[in-house]
Amino acid sequence: MAAQMKDKEAYQRLNFLYQAAHCVLSQNPENVELARFYCFTQKTIARRLVLRQDPSVKRTLCKKCCSLLIPGVTATTRQRRKKNKTRFTVMRCLSCGQSKTLLNNPDYSLWVDRPEAQMEQQKQPDPSRKNQPKDKKCDGSAPSSKPSAAPSSTST
Questions:
Q1: Quick one: how far is CA 62 from the chain centroid?
Q2: pTM of the entire structure?
């Protein structure tokens, strides 16, 4: 139970840092360095405690300079299309120039969002069926290689 509380507090801290970075940039868009510091601290805490961040959070952070990617403020956003009609969103960080390409497929769903990824919905192994070796038989009809411990009834 102590481990669950530790993770809960860590996720609360990560959430606070992410929201603080958003608030700093919404109040003053020139405060990019402070928002970058918050995002770098968030990334460091998540890495140190080996916590998984939500993909929606990871999409809004620059991998190179750890700045928060907000279209029109710290990033430019462009829609691109390839020959086979697949569409992409290209986000380019204004601080370092790093580009991030995101797929625009309405039918695509992340593994996290799929029903089979949820722990509660996964099939639990049946406790009545145990994995038994194929060599042994369950019904006990096979002769045993060990001598029986039962006393033999021999008349003298």
A1: 18
A2: 0.67
Q: Are strands 99-103 and 87-93 parallel, antiparallel or unpaired?
A: antiparallel
Token pair of 101, please? 């390409």
Tokens coding 77 = 């956003």
Are the CB atoms for 60 and 25 separated by under 8 Å?
A: no
SS3 string, 96-140, reads: CCCEEEEECCCCCCCCCCCHHHCCCCCCCCCCCCCCCCCCCCCCC
CB proximity list for 51: less than 8 A, separation 6 or greater = 7, 10, 11, 14, 45
The 10s digit of each residue's pLDDT in 38-65 is: 999 999 999 999 999 998 999 999 999 9
129 residue type, one letter: R
For 99, residues 6+ apart whose C-beta sits below 8 A from its C-beta are 90, 91, 92, 93
Q: Per residue in 4-13, pLDDT tens? A: 666 899 999 9
- Residue 23: strand, helix, or coil: helix
Helix (H, G, I), strand (E, B) or coil at 67: coil
